[in-house]
Amino acid sequence: MRSRQPFQSPDTADAVSRHPCYSEEAHRYFARMHLPVAPACNIQCNYCNRKFDCVNESRPGVVSEVLTPAEAERKVKGVAAQLLQLSVVGIAGPGDPLANSERTFETFERVRRHVPDVMLCLSTNGLTVYRHADRIAELGIGHVTLTINAVDPEIGREIYPWVVDEGKRYEGKEAAELLLSRQLQGLEALVSRGVLVKINSVLIPGVNDKHLPEVSKVIRKLGAAVHNVTPLIIAPGSRYEAEGRRAPRPKELYRIQEEIGRDGLRVMRHCRQCRADAVGLLGQDRSGDFTLADLPADPQPDPDARRKFQEDLDTRIRQRIAARQSRCGPLPMEGKRAPSIAATRVAVATRGGGKVNRHFGHATEFLVYESDGSSIKLLGVRKIQAYCVGTADCNGDKEATLQEICSLLGDCRLLLCSGIGAAPRAALNRAGILPLVRKGEIEEQVLESVKYNRYFDPIPVSKG
Q1: pLDDT at residue 68 in the model
Q2: DSSP string spanning 268-317?
Q3: Most buried of 123, 211, 215, 354, CB within 10 angstroms?
Q4: Are 248 and 240 within 8 A, CB to CB?
């Protein structure tokens, strides 16, 4: 068995260079695909309602179609033939993949046989990982995501009302004790076999918000590669909805990310909480473009075309990194700020590719960066309701939407986009956010805009 490796080691760096969830650079260029072949789940989460799909890993939304392994094979081949930047194929639900282990492993076997150049990825609640660790390693599933929301059963019982294992139902604290112990056992088993493990934790205000730093310490000691703290999304009809729980505010998420980053564990900040049938770049779900009805009966990917295309993307990433470092040096390590007196937060509207290239009215999310004009750091993603959703709606009263956007971006001083109308520009100005129309590389535009803004207005010290 292989021993654990530091995340920054050459072998590990190569393993994540094309994985959009593990690499902030890769997520701008490389695509992932989730295969919804696993409908059953073996635990209940209080933020999930199975009628509306399982949110344990992937959310939001119901999958459009649950596939058989044979259908999944056809779909992977069809997508790989058209989407040359597809680098990762994963199974994340809509239930738990290892509660559907036969379907899951048969699907991975088919993918490995017919599209061997993609990386394989698995997301699970971790209840039965220890039973399948050898099989995972044998199939070459090099990346696994475990959702670990607590390491204290007293907290876990507030998240998981029941667990079913080998036909027996466990409830309350007993269920939490079983699940949490199995999750840590599974993490150790995977790491010892050379599998890179990302831990997802759902930030639940009033339940585990103060506990997540302890979760981070435990998983770091056991060899986790990345910690991804995601904001709570409450499914309709779930227990948490009935209890009136709320999603965390951006500043709450940011504070947790900063705290866990200080211990040296890599923190994922560009997560989109993807659907279990997502296809494409993070933030650009194209699953609707690749339904089974639209695919050929026996699609055939071109291995040479895929290799050449992805090698070109590798070159573009290296050039981007070199250009950025020539402007502002290496990015600061997790938990450490670049030396500066003050910094500005900047919201960026983007369609992908590492560029400022989306109109404000069409944006459904903003990337938020922090910069002092000489260094730059991604803080996270803020999802919004688009201001403009059609000609008729754009002519109507969108004041409520603007207020919501201004509130969500209230800690930002600048907003960069490729275009913006008069009404949202005025609303942002009233909220103390300066919109600037820019096009080009995100890092370059953020740095230049922060420096430009300095001549006209003092840059406020950012607050969490």
Answers
A1: 96
A2: --------TT-EESTT---GGG--GGGS-SS----HHHHHHHHHHHHHHH
A3: 123
A4: no
Question: Strand (E) positions, 59-153?
Answer: 86-91, 119-124, 143-147
* φ, ψ for residue 222, nearest 5 deg: -90, 0
Strand 86-91, strand 31-34: pairing:
parallel
Q: How many CA atoms lie within 13 A of 135 on its CB side?
A: 14
Structure confidence by residue, pLDDT tens digits, 40-54: 999 999 998 766 444
Distance (Å, whole) CA 436 – CA 1: 53
**DSSP secondary-structure letter at 199?**
E
- Structure-token pair, residue 5: 């490796």
pLDDT the model gives residue 308: 96
| Integer Cα distance of 335 and 262 in angstroms | 4
From the list 147, 242, 142, 124, the residue with the least C-alpha distance to 203 is 147
The proportion of the chain whose per-residue pLDDT surpasses 70, expressed as a percent, equals 86
Encoded tokens for 369: 């960066």
Q: Both tokens of residue 75?
A: 């779909």
Which amino acid is it at 109? E
Mean pLDDT confidence for 277-291: 85
Cβ–Cβ under 8 Å, residues 347 and 416: yes
